[in-house]
Amino acid sequence: MKSNTNLISAIAIAIVIIGVIAFILWQGDTPGSDRGGQAGNQARSTSDRDLTAQSKAPRVPRTPRFQSVEDAEQALQDFDLTAIKGSDQEEAKRCFDRLIALAANIPEVYYSELAASIGQGAENDLDRLFKQMAIYQEWGRKNLESAVADLANVEGERLFYKALHRVLVGAMDTNAAAAMNLAETIDIEPGGLSDRERIDLMDTIYDSWVESDSFSALEWARQASVPDKRRDQWIADGLRAWSKKEPDAAERWRVKENFEGFDPNDY
Question: Which domain holds residue 101?
């Protein structure tokens, strides 16, 4: 009888011990891990608040990449234009886009000096020519009036015309109407622009304009003071570009402006 009592007592004690151990382990897993989860959530919340505060904080302007005109000129000289001279047109375009991005990082106050220095010998050096043209294109985008004024420093009629062309292409990115107005009215001395040269300038601007704002380009084209054949070509180009994006709007414009019998496919 005593032996049975001792056995029962031992079993009871074992059960109690197992229960205590299980309780301790449960406490360690659940509340502890919960506290850890709460701590983790709290840390994440704090981190989120920090990121939100940072996003709302005033942004400090970056220091200009180039601190001197010499730095900028060296970067232009070091820029590799091999891809532009290759046969892959897509890669050539990407290379020129990278060159434009480089020019965009250069402070405008350096442009005049750079255009003159990097353009020395550009008539017979494709590297220098491309880099000078990139400067003028970006200058036209940033400050059309200033870029046009600087063109008087370009030596040689051929380089002058190319530089003017790039200035207008750059201006097209920010104000197509202003770029076109300048191409229509600019008076070049000595000699001036031939009718063919002026039309070519306007044609380049128009090609980009119809892609970015077909309606405004067509509104300009229908009253442009150019030969009828050229005007009809521009209207056809504009309607084709617009019809790809907004066919209903393009058709309404054609009817409204009495071009319903006009077939862009004839041009």
Answer: 68-155
